[in-house]
Amino acid sequence: MSHTNVQCRLSHIQQSPELVKKLQDFSMAIVNSGHMEPGLGHLVDIRASQMNGCAVCLDMHVKEAKLHGERELRLYHVPTWRESPLFTAKERAALAWTEALTQIAPTGISDDLYAKVREHFNEKELSTLTFRVMGINAWNRVNVAFRPTPGAHDKTFGLDKAGLA
Q1: With 80 as the cut, is the pLDDT of residue 104 above it?
Q2: Given Cys at both, which of 16, 69, 130, 140 links 54, Cβ 3.0 to 4.6 Å?
Q3: How far apart are CA 112 and CA 115, in angstroms?
Q4: 48-94 pLDDT, tens per residue?
Q5: Domains of the chain by range and CATH?
Q6: 11-61, pLDDT tens digit by residue?
Q7: Cα dihedral across residues 94, 99, 102, 107: positive or negative
Q8: Where does the chain show beta strands of DSSP type E?
Q9: What gap in Å lies between CA 8 and CA 57, rounded to an integer?
Q10: Residue 80's CB: how many other CB atoms inside 10 A?
Q11: What is the pLDDT of residue 3?
């Protein structure tokens, strides 16, 4: 998705602050649930954002991951996680689940994938993972629709400290 001189179409934050606040609260409830390691959450957010072409979310979540200690090489390998030796079996399961829920096949989610993911996640964790994927997909959709500028709020959120300008 390439845009020349991309400009924000409208500010969904200004136009729908109450809805943005609810989505932020939803996202924070998932993060604060204690049922997912932060690093795994970053991988999920990054992969869904890549798939959806969301520059704002990809920019933000790569910087957050780096600030939380993620190795840059692993960040570079997220699009090729199937071939990369840098991810654990649990991370692979989460990334497969993320992809399946982000781009739902006409046949839905297979029993085979569900069984493979359940090998690594208990019911509570899988439910939380599913809500995490839902949340990032919601953010991706609003940001892809309205094209806010990636990195525009880095200072506000402390993301400038990631050193990825």
Answers
A1: yes
A2: 140
A3: 5
A4: 999 999 999 999 999 999 999 999 999 999 999 999 999 999 999 99
A5: 28-149 (1.20.1290.10)
A6: 787 878 899 999 999 999 999 998 999 899 999 999 999 999 999 999 999
A7: negative
A8: none
A9: 14
A10: 10
A11: 45
Burial class (CB within 10 angstroms; exposed 0-12, middle 13-18, buried 19+) of 160? middle
The residue written with tokens 């991706």 in the block is 140
Question: Per the structure block, which two tokens stand in for 45?
Answer: 């957010």
pLDDT of residue 136: 98
What is the three-class DSSP state of 23? helix
CB atoms within 10 A of CB 33: 14
- Which amino acid is present at 161? K
- Asked if 130 contacts 101 with a C-beta cutoff of 8 angstroms, the reply is yes
> Do the beta carbons of residue 146 and residue 129 sit within 8 Å?
no
